[in-house]
């Protein structure tokens, strides 16, 4: 087996464009890696091996068609694909074939990408996990609901994948699996053709092994892709300990302060950030919005296919149905006020630094872990870049995330290069 599967998306795209690498060779290497490791990791709901190879050969015969020409990409299985099944992680939709590609899939194909297959998701991107395991320790969860997308990138099956986040489904699995996860400003990426679970929260994002890969993805999917203006000023980073701080493990809390020391030594200006009571309520507001809108979006599906829906999802939908309307409306009001007042949270800071998850990936695969450090940012709609920092217990990665204001997507990606280079000590042993 060649080791081409270890190439980042950006390096692979450049090598293909220069004629130093064929798409067929890269796709073949990725498929061989999947064959060798999928029995352990179980990251894929569907692999379009022959189709991907045929498309790779076609790319090699044609001129470069876009920034991802010839690069294989994995698609979370809650995103529609017209030429392969979309099961939504549900027995009720086993083998379902959408008529059209989701808009993000169309844009990827237009950019020259090859869709390698569909990655495992929790049922309807909610709480019943799929079979995927953490590549670094298969006894532990990879996180979710974008479990297969994070694990496939971490285990070198594919350089780039799409995921979605309604609570913590991009940033948390990125932390657990030791990859870079990017949740952009809400609505920056078109969500047409993606399963609806919560209209005020659902966000399309991605996973890669390098920040530049997420920049590349953003250049394809972003609603605008302005250049990043270089600056000689040291970044002003706010150290944010939210109301959830006490739920972080001692290892995570220690890492947070160790990283702050590293950043200060590298020239960053650090500022303490105090969240107000209002912002501390945002995580609970997200939970209530998610609950109510999941009932609105998925309730009819659950009712129609009750015999093929998990008890976990049924209970979640029932809780959303029974939630008093005034509590839902109050949660929406909290979200709206916080979005309008986000500058008061950031103050003079360029970005905020905070944990990605309470700690390492929990033991077992019956749960995807707690999104307590992600909920408020999803509700706030801000761009988040999660990255692994170092190896924690049991050989599992442990990570942090940086947060920008709404619309600072290109800025946070540009800053992410510096942050990961300075603070990232994680080295995969896979």
UniProtKB/TrEMBL annotation:
User: Which residues, if any, are the signal sequence?
Assistant: none
GO molecular function terms here? catalytic activity
Q: Its domain of life?
A: Bacteria
What are the start and end residues of every segment in region (Disordered)?
127-150
Give TM segment ranges. Answer: none
Domain (Amidase) ranges: 26-413
Record-linked PANTHER family = GLUTAMYL-TRNA(GLN) AMIDOTRANSFERASE SUBUNIT A, TRANSAMIDASE
What protein am I looking at?
Answer: Amidase
Provide the species name.
Answer: Emcibacter nanhaiensis
């Amino acid at each position: 087996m060649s080791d081409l599967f270890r190439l980042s998306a950006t390096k692979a795209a450049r090598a293909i464009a220069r004629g130093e690498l064929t798409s067929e060779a890269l796709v073949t290497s990725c498929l061989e890696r999947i064959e060798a490791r999928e029995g352990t990791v179980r990251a894929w709901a569907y692999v379009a091996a022959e189709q991907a190879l045929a498309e790779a050969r076609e790319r090699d015969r044609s001129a470069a068609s876009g920034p991802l020409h010839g690069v294989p990409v994995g698609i979370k299985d809650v995103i529609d694909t017209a030429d392969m099944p979309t099961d939504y992680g549900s027995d009720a939709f086993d083998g379902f074939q959408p008529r059209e590609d989701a808009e993000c899939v169309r844009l990827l194909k237009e950019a020259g990408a090859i869709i390698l297959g569909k990655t495992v998701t929790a049922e309807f991107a909610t709480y019943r996990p799929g079979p995927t395991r953490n590549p670094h320790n298969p006894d532990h969860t990879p996180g979710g609901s974008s479990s297969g997308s994070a694990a496939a990138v971490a285990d070198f099956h594919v350089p780039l994948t799409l995921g979605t986040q309604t609570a913590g489904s991009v940033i948390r699995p990125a932390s657990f699996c030791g990859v870079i996860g990017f949740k952009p400003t809400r609505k920056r990426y078109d969500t047409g053709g993606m399963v609806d679970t919560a209209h005020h929260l659902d966000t399309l994002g991605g996973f890669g092994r390098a920040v530049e890969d997420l920049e590349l993805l953003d250049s394809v999917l972003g609603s605008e892709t302005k250049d990043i203006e270089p600056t000689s000023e040291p970044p002003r980073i706010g150290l944010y300990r939210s109301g959830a701080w006490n739920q972080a493990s001692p290892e995570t809390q220690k890492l947070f302060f160790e990283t702050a020391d590293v950043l200060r030594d590298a020239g960053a200006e650090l500022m303490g950030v105090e969240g107000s009571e209002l912002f501390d309520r945002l995580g609970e507001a997200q939970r209530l919005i998610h609950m109510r809108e999941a009932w609105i979006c998925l309730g009819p599906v659950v009712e129609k296919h009750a015999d093929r829906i998990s008890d976990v999802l049924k209970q979640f939908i029932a809780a959303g149905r029974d939630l008093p309307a005034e509590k839902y409306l109050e949660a929406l009001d909290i979200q709206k006020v916080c979005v309008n007042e986000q500058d008061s949270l950031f103050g003079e800071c360029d970005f905020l630094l905070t944990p990605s998850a309470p700690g390492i990936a929990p033991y077992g695969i019956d749960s995807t872990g707690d999104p307590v450090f992600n909920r408020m940012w999803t509700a706030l709609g801000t761009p988040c870049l999660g990255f692994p920092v170092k190896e924690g217990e049991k050989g599992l990665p442990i990570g942090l995330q940086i947060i920008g204001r709404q619309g600072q997507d290109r800025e946070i990606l540009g800053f992410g290069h510096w942050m990961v280079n300075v603070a990232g000590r994680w080295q995969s042993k896979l």
